[in-house]
Amino acid sequence: MSPTVRAYYEEEHAIQSTMFKVDSIPDTCPICHQGIEPIKRFGWLEKKNLCLIVQCPKEACRVLFIAHYYEPTSRGFTPLETVYQLRGCVPRKVKKKVFHGILNIFPEFIKIYNQAKEAEERGLKEICGAGYRRALEFLIKDYLFRLKGRKSKETKETRLGTCIKDYIDNQNIKDCAQRAAWLGNDETHYIRIWKDKDLEDLKDLIELTANWIHDEHLTRRIKKNMPEKKAKA
Ligand SMILES: [Zn+2]
After folding, report:
1. Of 57, 97, 167, 223, which residue is the least packed, with the fewest Cβ within 10 Å?
2. Over 90: is that where the pLDDT of 114 sits?
3. How far is the CA of 65 from the centre of ligand 1 (A)?
4. What residues have CB less than 8 Å from 193, skipping those under 6 apart?
């Protein structure tokens, strides 16, 4: 059964209120991202848009946000027969992707990646892919000169594809980075080559590349700290 909400509206210069059916009540806070049953504060109907002001009940959050509903094309005869459809909630805080272990080594990569994620979550699907592609370039180039000792200027000036093909010796990093670059190029060019792949695949490959870099970095650090077996005291 559809939930109902009370909303006010203006009719013939008077404020009226009635109950409206909605398809759902938001179950996640757009600010703290926790699962919630929001507190309903106020509803207003303006033309075909129903706005519901609700509040996050979590003590550490308590943020008020607006759930936007629109009137479906097939409406009922009375307000209560029409089921308004949830379109989204504002304001929305993007949940940042955290790359554990490499946070301090690749701050630019993480910054660009999260800006692309924000663009994606705001529905800017046509441009966020180019952002992810740029994040990948920062990850690879910073990896090469911060962790692999390549010259900074030369690395920055070399094409990403060449950096991956000629400078990366770890096969796992190379395989994932190469494929991420192929999909990344699809996001920036007019013609798409990998038609059966999408943004999710690109993000998976970037994440895998970052994970392999993290594993390599961690393994090298452990080996450096524990170079050989200790003799019994
Ligand atoms: Zn919250």
Report:
1. 223
2. yes
3. 9
4. 182, 185, 186
Residue partners of 90: CB distance under 8 A and separation at least 6: 30, 65, 66, 68
pLDDT band at 121 (very low <50, low <70, confident <90, very high): confident
Q: How far is the CA of 170 from the centre of ligand 1 (A)?
A: 42
What's the whole-model pTM score? 0.75
What's the 20 CA to ligand 1 centre distance in angstroms?
Answer: 25
Output the six-digit token pair for 65.
Answer: 């946000």
Give me ligand 1 centre to Cα 138, in Å: 33
| Distance from residue 43's CA to the centre of ligand 1 (Å) | 19
Sign of CA dihedral 159, 119, 143, 140: negative
Q: Which of 75, 48, 101, 54 is nearest to 215 (CA)?
A: 101
Instruction: Identify the three-state secondary structure at position 232.
Output: coil
| Ligand 1 centre distance from Cα of residue 112 (Å) | 25
DSSP, residue by residue, 73-126: SS--SSGGGSEEEEEEEES--------TT-TTT-HHHHHHHHHHHHHHHTT-HH
For residue 61, the CA-to-ligand 1 centroid distance in Å is 5
